[in-house]
Amino acid sequence: MTLHIPFDNSYAALPDSFYARVAPTPVRAPELIAFNTDLAKTLGIDGAEDPALASVFAGNTLPDGATPIAQLYAGHQFGQYNPQLGDGRAVLLGETIGTDGIRRDIQLKGSGQTPFSRMGDGRAWLGPVLREYVVSEAMHALGVPTTRALAAVRTGETVVREAPLPGAVLTRVAQSHLRVGTFQVFAARGDIDGLKTLFDYAVDRHAPDATDPASFLDTVMRKQAALVAQWLSLGFIHGVMNTDNCSISGETIDYGPCAFMDSYHPETVYSSIDRFGRYGYAAQADIIVWNMAQLATALLNLMPDPEAAVEPFTAQIHGMPEMIRAEWLKQFGAKIGLSAPTQDDARLIVDLLAAMQEVEADFTNTFRGLIDGSARDHFPDPTLYDAWSDRWQARLEAEEDPHAVIRAANPVLIPRNHRIEEMIAAAVDGDDTLFHRLVAAYAKPYDDTQSNIDLRNPPAPNEVVQATFCGT
């Protein structure tokens, strides 16, 4: 085998209480769907032409240097605490230090049962694997911190969900898989030694300038505030922002029932399991504060006097909404061409969004249309847009090159839900053509390429996706 992965594993060197040692379960007939050669180069992986790629990334062949483990964590799921979750269908093969100097995890998803499977089969079906591959790579191209996809493999086996479905394995790459829930599980168990070990490890890996739990919390909060503001600026809805799906690294992780809005409405919810809108579009700004409060609660256990630390930690959490507002203003200011928006500009942004909501304007195309004036076409009554545009044009007189700012902040293409569903349906029938087309197109989401003009179109009434599913 010529494939070489330069493993440099650190998490597997932590105490056994952090994980379970478990190897992937081999599959019947692995078939490579996609291998991300550009990401492989960054990871320092050699052997992109190796015929063993399918075997390795299905979990059939363990590469030299791998130390496969399933990580332990807990989490609040829709507000209810689950004391033990963990990787129930994923195995961390190990870590590499890339050519850019960044340490990253390489994890197989859908690789079989682990001690944390909780009666599950440990497998994934093809649809969610391809959705995560396409959407996570699109998010990377959009400039959003995210986990990435290294490979997708058909297993040649059937996975039973609501019906028999083709199985698949995704290879996910992340700056780490440490979650808020990783801290929660040690705090809830009263394992202060384990919590301190985790804290030291997380500081070394993600917050080297942090000097204590409070400064570490501040670092994580700032990353999350910036991340959620980016989600909002793109119309992205994570769909399942449980604390076990909230990464300490500040990356978008766990693309389950995720979706991008078509028509703008702040209360948009796609996830089939989010019956009360807890993780809807606009709610994401509030829920990330809630998640950070759970991290703060776990970190209190590391303070010399936890009771005395409650008040300053609470003050930190109460300061997070302002962090998010500042990031939101920066992101949305850029979307309308403002290089340095001020608080006075917030009303201009809010008024445009209110007008878009009133007419159910397409979120992505309306903002991109500010460049050439086609945004006006999204308003059945153009006078609604014109009244706003007069104020906007007056504000732009103070800007040097607003169109360049708009172009850089507003993509031409997003992974639209109906296209993702179309891709999955074709792949289930054995046709990966649309999958590969979407991967290539979304790699350049800001390019106004005529060959991809059809991918800009919002869904026709019969193509609208009403709900998205975890499905794994």
What does the model show?
Strands 2, 6, 7, 8, 9 and 10 form a six-stranded antiparallel beta sheet that branches. A two-stranded antiparallel ribbon has the order 1-3. Strands 4-5 form a two-stranded antiparallel ribbon. 48% of the residues are buried. Strand 6 and strand 7 (103-109) form a beta hairpin. Helices cover 39% and strands 13% of the residues. It is built from 15 helices and twelve strands. Helix 3 crosses helix 14 and helix 4 packs parallel to helix 7.
Notable features of this structure?
472 residues, alpha+beta, 6-stranded antiparallel sheet, two-stranded antiparallel ribbon, 15 helices, 39% helix, globular
Question: How many strands appear in the DSSP assignment?
Answer: 12
Number of helices: 15
Fraction of helical residues: 25-40%
**CA-atom Rg in angstroms:** 23 Å
Strand content: 5-15%
How would you sum up the major sheet?
6 strands, antiparallel
Assign the structural class, choosing from mainly alpha, mainly beta, alpha/beta, alpha+beta, or little secondary structure: alpha+beta
Strand-and-helix sequence, N→C? EEHHEEEEEEHEEHHHEEHHHHHHHHH
Q: How would you classify the quaternary structure?
A: single chain
Can you summarize this structure?
The chain has 472 residues and is α+β, with helices and mostly antiparallel strands. The chain is built from 15 helices and 12 strands. α4 runs parallel beside α7 (284-299), α6 (213-234) runs antiparallel to α7 (284-299) and α6 packs parallel to α9 (320-335).
